[in-house]
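Example record used in the benchmark description.
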Amino acid sequence: MLLEKDKITDGVLSGLLDKYMKSESCLIVQKSDLQKIHSILFSNLYCKTYGKFPQVICEPIIKEIDIEDKLIKGMTDFNNGIMHDENIEYFQEGVVLFHDGIYGSSFGRFNYIYRAKGFRILWHQSGEIKYHNVYMTIDGNGLQYFGDEVYGEIDLSSNEDDLDFEMSFDLHDIRILLSNLLNIKEHFYRDYILEYVITPPDVDKLSEISCSMRNELWRIIFKYGEKLITTNSQNFSSFSKLCNLFSDLNIQPTPSQIAQFLISVNDSKNEVITIFFNSLKSIDRIKCDEEALYNTILTCCYEFQAQAKQVVKEGENEYNTYLSGLIKSSRRELTIKDQTLRGESNGGRKSGELDIYIEKNGCPMSVIEALIVNCVNKKYISMHINKLWKYDTAGNKENYLIIYYTGTNLSQFVLKYKEFIANEHFDNKISDIQEMELGYTNLYSLKMTCEVNGSNSIIRHIIIKI
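Model output (structure tokens):
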């Protein structure tokens, strides 16, 4: 191994990073790796990582109450250790909230006090990792939370072979695994039911295990950099690959680790330091340029295509929710929303409903419109392409049209589709259409350049065979 064995997972994560450095393609995480990580997550050493978690909450609202009496009763119950959670149905075992993809949903229009939806990845103490659809409303009837619906899972205690695991679960990608594993929040005692949906800032803390893993992995990366310098190595590509990976994941070393690294190498002109600081400069900055965002969405479409039939209910909204969850898991610095009101509708009379909307730090980056077809439905496809321009009020450089193709002959569909968009008269003029080389038979990508308000704008068409 090129890397020193990490002490937190007894070499599991350092071994994965070592393989990642040597791999030409996306590294596949084995089921056995997750089994070893599972035993550490639920060890007594990291007991604040997991705890009880609800699958269903149905809390009624009592309209006629005396506010002062209720406050006094609450203080008394707290002092006596009484917890009123009789309307909460918990999972029977401890759970790690491995990924929280729940967000406020649109179309409330004050019909609700609050409404949220999305998905959560829960790592169960029994060894099951499950993707849960989540839906929550607060209205005049009370608070209802439903997180018991599972649309994807793997049982680490089973003897299922790794081939099935790789085909049905996206945590086999080391980037997605690390993105979630190094960002686990500390489990905290809930005083209010709403805190199962919204985390207050004072308890929004990174877990001890994620902090320890971050520090340990950066320690061995710096050790590897020191080794390259002391051995006068001329090949820094593997070190650069690791730094870029952690830069993409927005995982920073501590200031003391940086200082110690500089002291140990003691040569600011050395190439390994230049590589490190070039990657460090990009951490916490907007990294979502057009090419990076395109590669992310393309990777997620590939993941979606491999898993759609096994874990996603059929339907455009269900497909979009799952795809937006994959994008969010891959790029945690992005804000991903689906079914969001923005721009204007196709009729131009009211706000339109975007399928997926992507922004960073409140700034719009891209709009994704999606549709399900089994043939080249010209009127339907044309309507969706024109909708993209109406929804893009900021003038993004690139937007996306995702086509979920349910027909039988994809290559014939792509030929007819290209011919259609090349000859159709859309709301804006089309200046160029290119087919992007992907090397897949069930995934196609087209780049369509348009003239919008005197400037070039791009719509990327990604066709996924379902």
